[in-house]
## 1
Amino acid sequence: MKREISSWFSPALQIDMPIVAYGDYGFALLLVPTAAADYLEYERFQLIESLAPYINSGKVRVFSINSINKESWMNKEMEGAHKAIRQNQFNNYIFNEVIPFIKTNTSQETPIILCGASFGALHSMNLFLKRPDIIDGVIAMSGVYDLSEYADGYWDDQVYLNSPAHYIPNLQDEWYLNNIRNSKHIHILTGGGDYEDPSATAKFSEILKSKNIEHDASIWGKEWKHDWPTWRAMLPLYLETKF
């Protein structure tokens, strides 16, 4: 499997941000890490290995980035307003730096699907919903879509605008709604076992239904816990059956 690491100093984040790419061809799958993890997390926990047949066959080219959650929602010493500012800087990093990087290294026509597990699921969903014109879909695994779960009681407009469970019910702009509705790949998955929150998937599915947004919501059984074996089973299955 071809593996390439790149890095640049991010104007949005003002730090060096590495990115790793696996494979040569196929649609682009952009992985967003869980919690406070880094760009090699999905490799360390063998999720990349589980995708190897699809990477090696040219079905998908996988990219993985660093999180900055330790500089925002996972930083207990940081003011809430500053966490929200850092979140918006991360969003801009994705939209203005990572997406163009992927397009340059694939093609302008290559579809880009975001994917993440746990906190990465919330980020992936939020990023897709904000820019459905440049991101083609999302696979969100074991997520909650309410940012207040991570905000430690802080609330302002910027928390609201990064919390899909809050802003999507109020979204009226037809440009956004039509671009979101045009996606054929909105997949929300969760297990039903230890440390999972299947009610979050069910609630967010109802929100999407209320906006006539077609999507695929799946709640697996209680044997599927909030852990890597679940995600190593989920993601290859969806690449096999949905793409």
## 2
Amino acid sequence: MTLADDFLFCKIMSDTKLCKEMLRRIFPDLDVSEIQSVESQKAEKLALHIRGVRFDVFTRTAREIFDVEAQKRKLEDLSKRPRAYHIVIGYDGLNVETLRTSGNYKGLPDAYVIFICMFDPFGKGRHIYSFENYCTEDKNIALGDGAYTVFLNTKGKLNDVSPELKRFLDFLGNNEVSEDSYIKELDEKVKEAKANTEWRREYMRLLTIEDEKFAEGRNIGREEGREEGRAEGEQHGRTAEKRTIYERLVADGMTAQKASIITGWNLK
């Protein structure tokens, strides 16, 4: 297990100090000086009939909300996932006291959804892909809605991030430990986490649950396959029966058109 593992990432980045330094490296232009308590594996569901989301690492400052996701596998819906997270984060921002009392959306905090990918999500070799809303007709016009999405790539090849962020991504993606004091501290935290008996038990419980879910899904798939096979076999049987009766009627002198109407068999 390394920091790239979802379980360890959530546990270690729950530390306010470590999380703040990560955000500072990702967003050097933001004044990420004071963040509130960090929540890991925070589950949010807006309504009973709506599918919820689970944030890996969720925190906020007085002006911004951050969700950081550690992504090991490239999913087909990866580009759509930030949209879902932004919806929930936006709802969370509406709970700010000033918005409830004044109804002024100007106080809505900026929302940052960050995916740290252990693969290149767009195949262009960049370490960072940043997105915000612009006017389609004039890219110089930014919407300014405060919604930002960032994909980080531990497999990047371009010199497009700061040395500090590059060292962080190298540690995540390749477990490279440099002389960087922050990276050394993360490495020590990973070692401590591996030796944490309680965390190891929790990790094993999660693995057991995942294995059980996988086995259950596999069994359901097999049963559905058997049901589909039986249905397909019955359909073939009915088709063959129609054709046999059709051919017998025609052989006995009935016109093909009439035999087709009676049996439902169509030569076409």
## 3
Amino acid sequence: MKATKRNGTIDLLKFLFSIIVILYHFDNAVRYPDELFTKGYIGVEFFFVTSGFLFAKSLAKYSYGKDTLAQDSVGFMKRKFTSLFPYHVFFFLMTFIYCIIRYGWGIRSTFSQLLSSIPDFLLLRMGGISNLPLLGHEWYVSAMLIVMFILTPVVIKYRKIFLQYICPIMVVGCLGFLYHQKHDLDFVSQWTGVCMAGVLRAAAEIAIGCLCYVLCESRLLERLPKAVLLLLEGVLYAVVFLYAVPLFSGLNDYTVLFLVAPAVAVSFTPKACIGFLNNRFVSFLGKLSYPIYLSQIVLRQIIAPINFGLGYAFHAAFYVGCVIIVSLLCILVVDNLLRLCRWFVSRRQPAAN
């Protein structure tokens, strides 16, 4: 297959970590004695750190202009939001239809619930107002967007100060506060007095991703032999995966988070690139990870109560298979609708003279 400009290692890891996250939530719903990923929520840390890296990398292309700061900031977040929103709409509608059927909502209840779910529809649930529990997993997307919306103008205007000074403060301050609330990272909905805990978790880990970008830009990792980089990368991710199972019970979430960070930095280092992973199939797996993450709760509500009588492995595999199928359907429907919309827009635009 033809190589792409995407990072094949990151795309493959996105897919794998999305599976780990949905299996963690599935395990909590079914409660088999041999459930697997009891700490699978740690996969979200990979997504936040990766998002922080790409956030810093994208904004490095922007030059500060006093008169264009607001326009550049809004434009950046608009592109970020519109890249995520259509897939969210697909699963928001799917969730709402499920609720109507499952709970027997009438017209009045449906309309009332729809109005109450506007913050969820706009991906603002981490702002503190939410009404649709079956979209609870979207806290990650909401927290990421809120944090990036706040930070974008700061990063554009004060890039060096932000990356070298503000980021470390954010990491120490947010993680220190969270650690003293709870010694693991598996809490997001508690109100801290200023914001939801999930927003602080997102802020700290996006800042860590930004620091990973600084490390990569310094080219310090490029000084190491490729074999050393690949070994380091493999060992770090292996520890994270084994912790999710978990087999490293002596570690804690915060320690593992600081193992995820250098692993992500190595994965983004060009010298550590694994060429055969840079193809369209792996790139598509990376794209599939987002719908996989979004689809999990509705399908879990449907599939988890089913008693196949064939044990955990079959039940979990069936669930993952259904999630992947629905995610593929989401991409098929949403991407084609987006193409159709772009075609209509292009048809309505006046021809150039």
